[in-house]
Design a protein that fits this description.
heterodimer; A: about 375 residues; mainly alpha; 2 domains; two-stranded antiparallel sheet; 2 strands; B: about 400 residues; alpha/beta; Rossmann fold; Alpha-Beta Plaits; 3 domains; 6-stranded mixed β-sheet; 4-stranded antiparallel β-sheet; elongated
Chain lengths: ~375, ~400
């Protein structure tokens, strides 16, 4: 204990006396810049958490492409170029999947560590609005997830851009090959009608199928005329999946990834604030991502399909950009924000419903977390 | 979002084995953490003993301006003081008149319940500004709950309260801008340095708090360790960091809940010195403790709380005097016969044998003539008297006498 007692206003003009004190505006619900940056500092300095974030978000992409590049360099005949559209899609899905888990863990940590470390009461005693304390965590955490996801996705884009094979000049779908690229629906219809025999040997939906059954030219023409819209959708999906995504598609996919990971962070933050349990929150969100959503999305339950659509995973799948969805094997549906089709095979949701589910998850969990923060005993 | 779901739908190709390993590892890690948490949350088999009273020399209390320093007459070691029976005393505070500076803390009928348990039961508390005020009570009496309620850490179920003249919770932010507090054991983010923890709190405080970090750290003697992680701090250092956190507000009111907990005698001495210096600066210090000795050494006034209720409050000297706990130590021959003689005379409220004589507890309001009367009766009865000494009852004696009467019919 020091014997000297420095003035608390050292280096500053003498602090005003108690009666003249002008209290800082700590009651505002808006977080200050200082509040955000110091909260970001608190999260960043959790070394274990940061290592986990990097390992989950960046390292999979590095390993994925590192090995692909290495294998191709060693044996280019056996191993294709690392930047193929298929690899782009797989790497993006890796970032998405691990990014979701990492962001959920980060959100859970951001929502619980003040409590578990005993700092929450110190913060409340400052008189700062509890809502401001909660809201400060959002940009503080996103400032960590957004750059990491961006870094991983940028590597993905760079490899795809510089190591991609030439785009094919033909498109294959349903066993119909050699359809030229970039056809309009009318020109596709014309092309199909001109190649009745090849179409008849394929597996287009709507044609009579079975062992030894060969559709007649009339049946082929009828099926083409009747199902051309569906065929065109599949053709487009196949075309996209076979080509390297354009820059604008990459930008859409990047935004979609950031949104998905951001939602995971916000849900983790809200659920963490609600439960106060970091481990429980993380486990619940991992279970949501890898068990609940796949189980519920695997089979469409006609009597429960609206309930299934309330899953954030289903709604975000519907928002999946076209290039990514097509490469992931999707292709049904369409007409959504990013022109996506979803990879789960779920019937398309109305745009307003999809947006409502996504906004509902963001606002709902944020509101729950903020409410718990404001009412919790410190 | 869900590549796994896509894979389940049979479309995407995800390295599911890698993912599975990671997930299993995460689940395993979670289970380990959960087990660890459960183990930590189990109550200890035996309640920890309260820290022994400090053996360090007492720090003189800074006397309020214009008042003479209090004289202390400690009881002789080994003297068994009888339990005095003070006269019934008003529960009203020592002065219901508003002091010039106003009240630093003012509560009326403050109540806090946890289910059926009433932790704070209609507390009427008035703490004058500029005083060092002890909030005394046994463990579980509701001391911490009252402070938590005042600070807005938990909601009150009834009553009104004001800090520094500002009603709370209505003006909570404004009131807390002038309040610094340590509640329970001061805990901080262990992975951050002491300085970073203060930066976090200064950011929440706003205003000039950021500029007070360095002087606050220097004031509590942590300047040299400010850039070490809190995880490496001792309990005493964390307590000092807690005080530094309080000082960020340049507080008019300091509320310290059990600040001596876990400190060794040297640490207690340092903390006592610091509290005294803060009180000497004119800050109001509310010290919640079950350590009577510490409160007596540090505070001017006290409130006694038990079962959530304030049962006495006022300046320590007045309370002890008002309790009628004047005790006379009599050093004489034949102490047993002396006890019998005094008891038969009916001039004492109580008598007890001591190591070298006896102790006589005088009734409330008894004059010094009674002491002379005791001497006269003993000499007349042929008992040699070697000395009579008035013993000032300690706060502990008074506290025990007050709390021991709880539940008895008045």
């Amino acid at each position: 204990m020091t014997t000297t007692e420095p003035s608390l206003s050292e280096g500053r003009p003498e602090a005003p006396g108690p009666s003249r004190r002008r209290a800082p505006r700590t009651g505002s619900w808006l977080p200050t810049w200082d509040l955000i940056t110091t909260k970001n500092l608190e999260i960043r300095k959790r070394r274990g958490l940061m290592v986990t974030m990097v390992v989950l978000i960046v390292v999979p992409t590095v390993l994925f492409y590192g090995l692909r590049l290495l294998f191709h360099a060693v044996d280019p005949h056996t191993y294709a170029l690392a930047g193929s559209p298929e690899f782009f899609s797989q790497a993006t899905n890796l970032i998405d999947e691990f990014g979701f888990i990492a962001a959920a863990a980060l959100g859970a940590a951001a929502g619980t560590t003040d409590l578990s470390d005993g700092m929450f009461r110190h913060l409340v005693i400052t008189g700062r609005s509890r809502l401001a304390l909660y809201l400060a965590r959002i940009p503080a955490g996103l400032a960590i997830t957004v750059p990491l996801v961006a870094l991983a996705f940028m590597m993905n884009c760079l490899v795809t851009s510089y190591q991609s094979p030439p785009d094919p000049t033909t498109v294959s779908f349903y066993g119909v090959t050699a359809a030229p690229e970039a056809l309009s629906q009318a020109r596709l219809q014309t092309w199909l009608l001109q190649h009745e025999q090849q179409v008849g040997n394929g597996f287009l939906p709507g044609l009579p199928a079975g062992p030894g059954i060969t559709p007649t030219p009339a049946q082929v023409r009828s099926a083409i005329d009747k199902n051309i819209a569906s065929y065109y959708s599949d053709y487009t999906a196949a075309e996209i999946s076979g080509s390297s995504p354009a820059a604008n598609e990459m930008a859409k996919i990047g935004l979609w990834l950031e949104l998905d990971v951001g939602i995971a962070f916000l849900v983790g933050l809200g659920l963490g604030s609600l439960t106060g349990q970091r481990t429980t929150t993380t486990i619940v969100l991992i279970a949501l991502e890898i068990i609940v959503t796949p189980l519920l999305a695997h089979t469409q339950l006609p009597y429960f399909i609206d309930g299934q659509r309330l899953l954030i995973g289903v709604a975000m799948d519907q928002l999946r950009p076209a290039a990514l969805a097509a490469a992931s094997g999707g292709g049904r549906g369409g007409g959504l924000l990013f022109g996506g089709h979803g990879a789960l095979g779920f019937p398309p949701m109305p745009t307003w419903a999809m947006i409502s589910v996504i906004v509902g998850w963001i606002v709902g969990w944020s509101a729950i977390g903020a409410w718990r923060m404001m009412t919790r005993d410190a | 979002m869900n590549a796994i779901a896509a894979a389940a739908a049979g479309h995407a190709h995800i390295p599911s084995i890698v993912l599975g390993i990671v997930v299993l590892a995460a689940l395993g890690y979670g289970a380990v953490r959960l087990t660890h948490r459960i183990r930590l949350s189990r109550p200890p088999r035996r309640a920890p003993k309260p820290a022994p009273p400090s053996t360090a020399p007492p720090t003189p209390k800074p006397a309020p301006p214009g008042t003479a320093p209090p004289t202390s007459k400690p009881a002789r070691p080994g003297t068994a003081l009888p339990t005095p029976k003070p006269a019934p005393q008003s529960l009203a505070p020592f002065s219901v008149q508003r002091p010039d500076g106003g009240w630093a803390v003012e509560t009326h009928g403050l109540t806090k319940r946890f289910g059926a348990n009433v932790a704070v039961d209609g507390v009427e508390l008035l703490v004058p500004r500029g005083s060092a005020f002890g909030y005394l009570g046994p463990n579980g009496a509701g001391k911490t709950t009252l402070i938590r309620t005042l600070l807005g850490l938990t909601r009150a179920d009834g009553g009104t309260m004001a800090l520094l003249g500002i009603p709370v919770p209505a003006g909570r932010s404004r009131a807390l801008a002038g309040v610094g507090a340590i509640v329970d054991e001061p805990r901080f983010h262990p992975h951050l340095t002491g300085r970073d923890n203060l930066r976090l709190l200064a950011a929440a405080r706003g205003g000039d708090a950021d500029w007070r970090i360095a002087p606050s750290l220097a004031r509590v003697g942590l300047a040299d360790r400010a850039d070490d992680k809190v995880a490496t701090y001792s309990m005493g250092m964390r307590q000092r960091l807690g005080v530094a956190a309080c000082l960020l507000a340049d507080p008019e009111l300091l509320m310290l809940d059990e600040p001596m907990n876990g400190l060794d005698p040297a640490g207690m001495h340092e903390m006592r010195t610091m509290i005294a210096s803060l009180a000497a600066e004119g800050r109001t210090v509310v010290l919640s403790s079950h350590l009577l000795d510490e409160v007596e050494r540090t505070c001017d006034a006290v409130a006694i709380v038990d079962h959530g209720r304030v049962i006495r409050q006022g300046p320590i000297d007045e309370l002890i005097r008002g309790a009628g706990a004047m005790v006379v130590q009599v050093d004489c021959a034949e102490p047993a016969r002396a006890v019998q003689l005094i008891d038969e005379a009916g001039i004492a409220a109580g008598t007890a044998l001591a190591d070298a004589g006896l102790t006589v507890t005088l009734p409330a309001g008894a004059s010094r003539e009674v002491v002379a009367d005791i001497n006269r009766r003993l000499v007349t009865a042929g008992i040699d008297v070697y000395g009579l000494r008035e013993v000032q009852a300690s706060l502990e004696d008074w506290f025990l006498s007050v709390t021991s009467r709880l539940g008895e019919p008045s």
